[in-house]
Design goal:
Citrate_synthase_sf; binds acetyl coenzyme *A; mainly alpha; 18 helices; 3% strand
């Protein structure tokens, strides 16, 4: 690789790279991906090992501080997060100003931006104590905000967090407590959600993380940067794909057109229709996260005694695509989003909450990158160039 910033300064050349396909925006020591071989490692640890053995909070620590925490460090971290889950009562009223039809991702992003108004006195990006406190507050409060966005969308009262519960249990209770149907804190279910969160925790310079870094590079505080990252994640080509996958599967089921015909329409690029949950900018082999999610989907549905025809359609679709020249030539495989929706649905989450779950998962990665960027002496305000294609000079007509 070459250092383009030095080269272009010396030669006066500008590199044009739509979608930043060949441009690195930073050095980073957080996450390693080998897209050809389907390898993903956080701080050197294979994703498979972390998903099998670790927890969301332990991985969050690893991403942010570079090492696995000692048991004491993890216990203290967990305790701090439990003690910061409460939202200011005024912030709870903020939700009532939004329509109940609002997309939970918009609610989440707005409420996280609003957090900065409550903690203006402790959100200096250059004060390490402020950064520590803001990190804890975000990790503690964002799941609560997410659950309130869910409750708001179904017209139900918000619950106060129960800090005697673990991170994932508390989140499930905030979402499903007070429902007509009893909810389950079955350890298999809790572990499955914890594992899904781990799989989403970081993915180096994806669109939302790059957004968080770009906003942060201006000196904006962490709340504002994360709020912008949530908006970037919401698009269907990024985190919003998990919601789009389930809508696609449901359309295939309801239309009765069959998987084969649908795949033909995708190949003809009819109305720009894509196979959502397929393809990745970096992975040109199988996405290693998708492998783990697929196994989880089978285990969770079996554990809950659910037989969802959408999972069968997803498997049929994957098989069809993997055997087809169009997908083989373009090296398109299922990505992390392909099977997650089926699991979230089985857990009881409405489709519009799926990307919110992704956002909770990705939060530690966003924070880790924002912190890494702020500690890097090479960091500059992000400011891409353009190649101007408009009129060179014109004059306003005399009237
Ligand atoms: N279905 C059908 N065709 C596809 C798909 C797909 N899902 N993805 C890519 N292609 C085709 C493109 O049409 C293009 O074909 P062409 O050469 O005939 O024009 C070729 O494959 C290359 O695709 P690009 O769009 O150039 O690939 P890029 O790296 O820019 O995009 C992306 C990657 C956005 C993920 C794309 O594969 C896509 O839109 N997938 C569906 C949405 C999705 O699942 N997003 C989640 C990504 S993972 C994440 O963000 C968490």
């Amino acid at each position: 690789s070459i250092d383009l910033s030095t080269l272009t300064r010396q030669t006066g050349l500008t590199a044009l790279d739509y979608g930043f396909v060949n441009t690195a925006s930073t050095r980073s020591a957080i996450t390693y991906i080998d897209g050809e071989q389907g390898i993903l490692r956080y701080r050197g640890f294979p994703i498979e090992e972390l998903a099998e053995n670790s927890t969301y909070l332990e991985v969050a620590w690893l991403l942010m501080y570079g090492e696995l925490p000692t048991p004491d460090q993890l216990a203290e971290f967990d305790d701090k997060i439990r003690r910061h889950t409460l939202l200011h009562e005024d912030l709870k009223r903020f939700f009532s100003a939004l329509p109940h039809t609002a997309h939970p991702m918009s609610v989440l992003s707005s409420a996280v931006a609003a957090l900065s108004t409550y903690y203006e006195d402790s959100s200096d990006p250059h004060d390490p104590d402020h950064v520590e406190l803001t990190t804890i507050r975000l990790l503690a409060k964002m799941p609560v905000i997410a659950a309130y966005a869910h409750k708001k969308s179904i017209g139900q009262a918000f619950l106060y967090p129960d800090n005697s519960l673990g991170f994932v249990e508390n989140f499930l209770r905030l979402n499903f407590g007070n429902m007509a149907e009893p909810y389950s804190l079955d350890p298999t279910l809790v572990q499955a959600l914890d594992r899904l969160l781990i799989l989403h925790e970081d993915h180096e310079q994806n669109a939302s993380t790059s957004t968080v870094r770009l906003v942060g590079s201006t000196g904006a505080n962490l709340y504002s940067s994360i709020s912008a990252g949530i908006q970037a994640l919401s698009g269907p080509l990024h985190g919003g794909a998990n919601e789009a996958v389930l809508q696609m599967l449901a359309r295939i089921r309801d239309s009765g057109e069959g998987v084969g015909k649908f795949v033909e329409r995708v190949k003809r690029k009819e109305d720009g229709v894509k196979l959502m949950g397929f393809g990745h900018r970096v992975y040109k082999n199988y996405d290693p996260r998708a492998k783990i999610v697929k196994e989880s989907a089978d285990a969770v549905l079996e554990g809950l005694g659910i037989n969802d025809p959408l999972l069968d359609i997803a498997k049929e679709l994957e098989q069809f695509a993997l055997e087809d020249d169009y997908f083989q030539q373009r090296r398109l495989y299922p990505n992390v989003d392909f099977y997650t929706g089926v699991i979230y649905k089985a857990m009881g989450f409405p489709t519009r909450m799926f990307t919110v779950l992704f956002a909770i998962g990705r939060l530690p990665g966003w924070i880790a990158h924002w912190r890494e960027m702020n500690l890097d002496p090479q960091t500059k305000i992000g400011r891409p160039q353009q190649l101007y294609t408009g009129s060179l000079e014109r004059h306003y007509p005399a009237r």
